[in-house]
Structures are given as C-alpha cells and as structure tokens.
Amino acid sequence: MNQTPLLSPRFGLRMNAVGILSGLIVLFWILVAFVGPSFAPHAPGDIVDFDFFGPISSELWLGSDYLGRDIFSRILLGTRYTVGISFAAVCIACFSGVVLGMTAAVIGGWFDMVLSRVLDALNSIPSKLFGLVMVAAIGSSIPVLIVLLAVIYTPGSYRFARALAVNCNTLDFISVARARGEKTIYLISQEILPNITGPVLADFGLRFVFIVLLLSGLSFLGLGVQPPNADWGSLVKENIGGLAFAAPAVIAPCVAIASLTISVNLLIDNLPVKIRDRA
Amino acid sequence: MPGQITLLVLGRLGVTLLTLLIVSFVVFGATLLLPGDVVEILLGQAATPEAVAGLREAMNLDSPAIVRYVQWLFGLIQGDFGMSYANNMPVADMIGGRLANTLRLAAVTTAIAVPLALFLGITTAMFRGSLYDRIVTTLIVSIISVPEFLIATLAVLVFAVWLRWLPALSLANDVNSFGQLLKVFAMPVITLSCVISAQMIRMTRAAVIEALKMPYVEMALLKGASRTRIVLHHALPNAIGPIANAVALSLSYLLGGVIIVETIFNYPGIAKLMVDAVSTRDLPLIQSCAMIFCFGFLLLITIADVIAILSNPRLRR
Q1: pTM
Q2: What is the DSSP string of chain B?
Q3: ipTM of the complex
C-alpha cells in the first residue's frame, strides 16, 4: 500500500486510500441501518414475484427470495438487525469489560485474581458453543441475543483493557494521583481511561466484527433472529436452497456481510498510527 | 526436586482442570435457566399431577441443584451421560458413532491444512513484501473476517455450481467406494481447511518474520548463506515453538467451523447432533456435546500453552 495522505494533515492524522474507502463503506451501512428501510421499494413481507429465486431485474434489483419476496428490501431491513444488535451488544461488552478491567488493574490483589480467573474460564468456552447452549436454555428474542452476545465478548474486552491498564498503572502520574489520595473512580476515569482510549476503540471495532460474525452464524443455524424478522445471516439461511442455481437471493446477503466485516477490519488496520497505538 | 519447567507445566494443567470445572458449572447452570417445568414440557398432554410427581421423582428433580450438579458431574466422569429427553435413548449411544465421524473429518482436515499452512506461512515470510506475499495476506484477512458459512457457500458456488466437480450438498449415508468418500469429504474439508489455515498462516508468518529479525540471521546473511538456508537452518528451528503453538491454537478453531460445516453439508457428526438438539431443547444431549467440545477445545489450548512453555529456551536449566 502506498501511503498517500488523502486527508488533510491538519490534526496530524493521515489515512490511506484503502482506509478511507473502507471507512466510507462502514459509514454507508450505518446510514442504511438508520434510514434504509424507508427507501425500500417493496414491503419486506410482500410477495412481489410469482417466480421464486428470481433473477436481477429493473423491478427487483437483487432478485426475489424463496417465497418471491424482494431481496433488496429485505436486506435493507436486515441491516437494522445485524448492525443494530451487534452495535448494542458490543457497546455493553466493551463498557463492562473496560470498566471491570481498569478497576481490576487499579485495585489489584484478590479482586483482580478472582475476576481474571473466572472471566478467563468464560473466555475458554468457544463462543458458538456458548451461544448454542444459552439459546437452547433461554430462547432467542432480540434482547436475549444482545445480552448473550455481550456476555460472550465481555471477557475478551476485559482481558485487553486490563493488560493496557496494568501497563498504565505503573506510570508516575498514577503514583502521584494515588499519593494525592484520589479515589478509584477518579483514577480510572480521569487518569487511566484517557490514556488507553485509542487501543480500546480499535478493540471495539474488532469485537464488533466478531459479534457480527457470531450473530450471523447463529442466525444461519436458525438460532438467532427469528422469522418473520430476518438479519443477513437469516437471509442466507432462508435462501440457501437457491445456492445450487447461484440465485442472487443467497449471494447478495453474503456480499453484504463480507463488505461490512472486511471494511471494519481494513479500517482498523489503516487507522492513523496516532489513534491506534497511542498507549 | 522438580525443575522449573515441570512446575510450570503442572501449574498450567491445574488451571485447565479448574477451568473445566467452571465450564461444567456454566453448562449445567444453563439447565436451570430453562423457563417452565422440564417435566411438564416432557409429558406435554399427559401431564397429570401424578405423572408429573412420578417423573420428578424418577429424574431426581426434587433434590437441590447443587446435589444434581455433583451427581451429573460424577456421571460424566464415569462415562454416564444420562438419558436424552427427546427420544429416551442413552446419550452415550447417540454420541458414539457421531463423534467418530466428526473426529474423522477433523483428522482429514488437519492432515491437509497443517502442511499447506506451514508451507504458505514460511514462504510468505521468506518473500515478505512481494506480490505473492501481498496476495496471500489479503486473502487471509478476507477469510478471517467473514463467517464460516460464507466460505462454505462460496465453496459450493465455485466447485458445485460453476465447475460442477462435486455435488452441492453431501450426504454421508451412501458411501460405497473410495471415490464417493472423496466426494463426501471434499467440500467440508475444503471449507474447514480455509478457516483454520488462515489463522495458522498468519501466526506462522509472524513467527518466522520475528525470527528473521534476530542478529544471528544478519550474521548468516553476512557470511553469505543463501536465503533458503537462512530460513530453513537458522530461523526455522528457533521459530518451531511459536509455530507449534500456532498450530495447536488454530486447530481449536476447527470447533466453531465444524458446527457450521456439519450443518450446511448435512454431515452426520456430533456438531450436527448438537444443533438439532438445540432445536428440540434436548438439554442432556446438549450438555454432553458441549462438555465434549469444551474438553477438546481446552485440550488443544493447553497443548499450545505447554508447547510454548517447553520451547522457551530460557526456562531450560
């Protein structure tokens, strides 16, 4: 990759073309999640084509699905589920993980040891398996899915934030703050958090990708978002029968998932070093 | 007096056992979350008060949760997995053959993916920055950042729909000849190999590049050794530890992959059994499968860590 600065280096931030392009794709999907469904040419539940797995046409931009519904409209609505659920889950996971991680690093001792051991154990249950067992036990409504995904990815976020905070905790200004007699809350919010923000944000993005992957995987197994609602994973599952004749109905949601996750990954890889590695 | 390495390895094994215990607790705890009464769900229409009381008695549901947990755990250790709710068969009988199928799939995948990944990982590190390296690394980032079912879908599109080499969906029931066996295994193995070798290539490449930065590599370069010789004789022996670690770690990704792959290709393995059990909410079966999976996963992670400990020359006394 040639490092041509396209962004004006006003704030000392430069980003290469790949980074900007992937950033735009991510932005596009966020926008679609908010306003996409109101641009849908057909209602997502309406059967508009007499043929199933219809081809791409001027009427149906991405063909029709296994019941003859418009895939383009269904993808627009599915964006809301995939991006929305994943975003809510990653916010909860990162918030609780980072707060617990910083607290453990500052307090240390028994609190740190017990918390780390338990969360490490949770981390060593494969995420898909954990998801399967929990969905079997408590079902898969959307709030349950959000909490479940958040619980699965909190330990990883905790581990990451704790490692950063432990490094930060040994620096002089923390000792000074301690000597001043500052409380734990002040230490983590005013002294440590500002110094680990960059890497934590990068981790937030990566964890978002993991959650999108797990959610799509669960939906693909029929255990995630339930009909009549459908996220991108459910759309692939619904239309998997069209795979044998390469129907656009099964390829389009796949492309949507891939474009989102690959873009987020590339965006993080190409973030200006100043943001990414500030700690 | 035991050496430092023995202590470290024993400590690591202790952590694994403790983790397995916590995992079993979580897996068992999932049953308690089940809304409604298991007995009434099981009996359905026939849930007369007497029948409910009788079955509760028979299933030991009246004793406190912690007692049932301990009984369940001891049963597991002795190989008694309990009875399936859905079809009243011993879980062990249902798992037996399925487990063998999955292990066979995993073995074939490992045999193909590991040599391939090592070759690609080492060569990309050798020709770092070349076009070849960039193509492979870009492919790997793409494979890592998409879900497993997407790779499976792509494999079907390429090999079954466009090239027409293989059947779209494999059914392992009608295997009579070696050719059919190949056809049944081909697609799941291709998908799984992609999933696990991507991680392996990435980590192997990083390990070799790390080793190539060492001063002794520069020394070898100065004395005029060829590139192949530098990599194979100087860098690689020092990167063996991290690479073995990477291989064991990547194999643990088989697990996530196998759940998806067995479902999409209708492969009669233990993961498919578990996914089906989730739809029928057959908890004893789910718990047993989950424990088997977690055990395999922890085993691989532990092996990876032990290799990392053993290969650290600073710990050798």
Answers
A1: 0.82
A2: ---HHHHHHHHHHHHHHHHHHHHHHHHHHHHHH--S-HHHHHHGGG--HHHHHHHHHHTTTTS-HHHHHHHHHHHHHTT---B-TTT--BHHHHHHHHHHHHHHHHHHHHHHHHHHHHHHHHHHHHTTTSHHHHHHHHHHHHHHTS-HHHHHHHHIIIIIIIS--S-SS--GGG--SHHHHHHHHHHHHHHHHHHHHHHHHHHHHHHHHHHHTSHHHHHHHHTT--HHHIIIIIIHHHHHHHHHHHHHHHHTTHHHHHHHHHHHTT--SHHHHHHHHHHHT-HHHHHHHHHHHHHHHHHHHHHHHHHHHHT-GGG--
A3: 0.77
